[in-house]
Amino acid sequence: MSTELAPATDPDVVLVGGGIMSATLASLLGAVAPDWSVTVFESGSAVAGESSDGWNNAGTGHAALCELNYTPAGADGSVDVTKAVTINEQFEVSRQFWSHLVRGGLTGAPKEFITPVPHISFVTGEAGRTYMRTRHAAMAAQPLFSGLEYTENPAELAEWVPLMMAGRPAGQVVAATRSASGTDVDFGSLTRLLFTAAEERGVHVHVNQRVTRLERRTDGRWTVTVRDTVSGEERSVRTRFVFVGAGGGALPLLQRAGIPEIRGFGGFPVSGMFLRTRSPELVSAHQAKVYGQAAVGAPPMSVPHLDLRLIDGDHSLLFGPYAGFSPKFLKAGSMFDLPRSVKPNNLGSMLGVARTEMALTRYLVKELLQSRGARHRTLTEFVPEAEQRDWDMITAGQRVQVIKRDPRSGRGVLQFGTELVVGADGTVAGLLGASPGASTAVSAMLKVLERCFPDRIAAWRPALEEAIPSYGRRLADDPALLELVRKETTQTLELNG
């Protein structure tokens, strides 16, 4: 990967940001339009340095198998699994595409970025058990979640999660579900592998190159101005299409592009912290990814989880998240990112969220004021016998939650998902937001292709179907196809162990 500015030739496509989204779009373009020239600009000194980095909590294979915030309970006690089905479908699309790349010779073994890890949901108390029973029944009825196990037996749970059951009060009501088909994904490693493969195909990947301006030309192309973060030198390239996959940096760049579609959008940055242990004894006693329930009144992003992680070949456990706050939109961003993002066209949206999201504000203030002891007590609700000396606090990446204007009420609303913003003529697009993010990158980038190049999709369909056998179809409605693709991806990605 070059630290020099791009070659003089103007590329067909410019990808802004060296994360999993740009890496995925570059890979898809390699499949459907291999003759197009593609250039990537990353402001950091290496790709995958921000949200896609494993330690920055880019996601660990979110497939809605255990994340309880994707299966909300209604006022009548019923559990809605619609969002869980959608996310699981999207993760299956990612697995199919990764399998296609591995079969095509993606550098490195699959175990360098994906490993099998059971996904478990865990609750306590009568209300939690009632919810878990209902949730399991609703999910088990879906082909995507076949094989999901349920137990409320403490002895069985002691086998599933021994670290979490040791020292737990006798007689405490517990309940859990487990999916043996869960995985842990190191998106930092995957991103680097994808960019290495892209460079071998002729994609130009440049680091230490910050995109400062996007300007629409009269001929319909875009002028992309880039500044070298080391030398300060500037230059420009012209391109037919720009994708802004710069994480928290996407909002300000789209604002500078001046496209009407970004009007009304704002961003609310939230940083995360995690307790981490690398103790071999503790890691060996917790070979799973476990999600619990968020505290009453806490936002979805606060759902506590204890994850086995394999990052750069190193096993560890992460527990959190503990929310923090910084006005930066990127971990390596500026303290002025938030104030600079406030514009006349989004001020109303942001003030509206400030009025309606007082619960989030109170939660963040409470989190920021927590002592180390208080954070450790939160851990002991998951791991009763946890010793403070075994865990250290690490700071994860920045997340910029999407603020947008509700078209019905005109008020600003805060959403915790992702939002694809596309210019009217399809020559520029960008992705805002966070969860579930990286795990659904392939589906997100397929939407970019479909919305920005609708006249080419018919010609591209055979290549897309070869790479993603379920493309254009719902696996939830086709159990035979679901069984076929899962068998193939499991074998190709070496997930039998």
From TrEMBL:
A Pfam entry, by short name: Mqo
GO molecular function: (S)-2-hydroxyglutarate dehydrogenase activity; L-malate dehydrogenase (quinone) activity
Parts of the chain that traverse the membrane: none
Pathway: Carbohydrate metabolism; tricarboxylic acid cycle; oxaloacetate from (S)-malate (quinone route): step 1/1
UniProt enzyme class: oxidoreductase
EC number: 1.1.5.4
Key words of the record: FAD, Flavoprotein, Oxidoreductase, Tricarboxylic acid cycle
Cofactor requirements of the protein: FAD
Catalysed reaction equations from the record: (S)-malate + a quinone = a quinol + oxaloacetate
GO biological process annotation, one example: tricarboxylic acid cycle
InterPro entries: FAD/NAD-bd_sf (IPR036188), MQO (IPR006231)
NCBIfam families associated with the record: mal_quin_oxido, PRK05257.2-1, PRK05257.3-2, PRK13339.1
Similarity comment: Belongs to the MQO family.
Stated name of the protein: Probable malate:quinone oxidoreductase
Natural source organism: Geodermatophilus ruber
Lineage of origin: Bacteria, Bacillati, Actinomycetota, Actinomycetes, Geodermatophilales
